[in-house]
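Review box. Two proteins, two foldings.
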Amino acid sequence: MSDDAEIVPGMPVGEMPVAWTLLVVGCAAGALATGEFSRVTLRAAAPLLLAGGLLALAAVRAIGRGTRLVTRGPYRFIRHPYLAGILLMLVGAIVAMRSLPALVLFIPATRITLMRARREDHNLALRFGDAYEAYWRRVPFMLPLRPPLGADTIAAIDAMREPPPPPPDAGPPAGPAAREV
């Protein structure tokens, strides 16, 4: 086992996106290849597809280049909106196409998505420390079961991310050179 603090036992983090992408694409392709849709199923699935797509797009937009801890947009409501949006779109595809094989593939796709989200939590906690812990305690995993972050909570988390201000200038440092007179 490596000494890298970001490695979590199980599937290597570098391989996770490949396996996850293959399962998600397989689930959607299974729905298209084996399912048949009707107007009723399309009407039932349209809100799921639209909401999932908009949630995933809003998450990507909120992250931007991803160098800081994001607490705005959909990240005020849940910690993993992109992954939740993808799962919601998969449910929409399964409903639209009424596909049993896609439903079977949805189970491992959901499992690996949850594993991916937990690894992201772990890695973000290592990267952002106390700020992420405060965010983690306040914001639900993938279902918005609590009120969103308020401006005061976001400001408190942002304050944890910033380095402490330098102390007021109290004169020259009291090192060995300062003691020689």
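Next protein.
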Amino acid sequence: MMFFETSFPVRYYETDQMGIVHHSNYIRYFECARNGMMADGGYPIERCEEEGVTIPVVSVSCHYKRPAKMGDVLTVSAAIESVPMAKLVIRQAVRNQHGDLCVEGEVVLGFLNKETGHPTRCPEKLARLIESRLNDR
């Protein structure tokens, strides 16, 4: 499985009046980990787009387990279990500094030809990157 983690503190603007992270921010946290994983692998999303393929979100599922709060340091993970063809499935999780699971979910991404807007296959460079790192964990 290709695996990546990134950590950062909860920022004040991400919380509500009770100091709890607003639910919408977890989707942004997922994106930070996904983009970090691609950059860490040497194929940042910007390069993919420069080479003519966009990667839109097709669906997101998010299961809330425990609230993250102001003062927490979160670790967000992204895991890919197989080489994509037409869609990329990424399992994601957010844990606090104690290792408690706050949120888990799955993001499905598609691939579109940037010029035509039509579906296309996963870029070969991205497929090779994922295949080369399927034994990360």
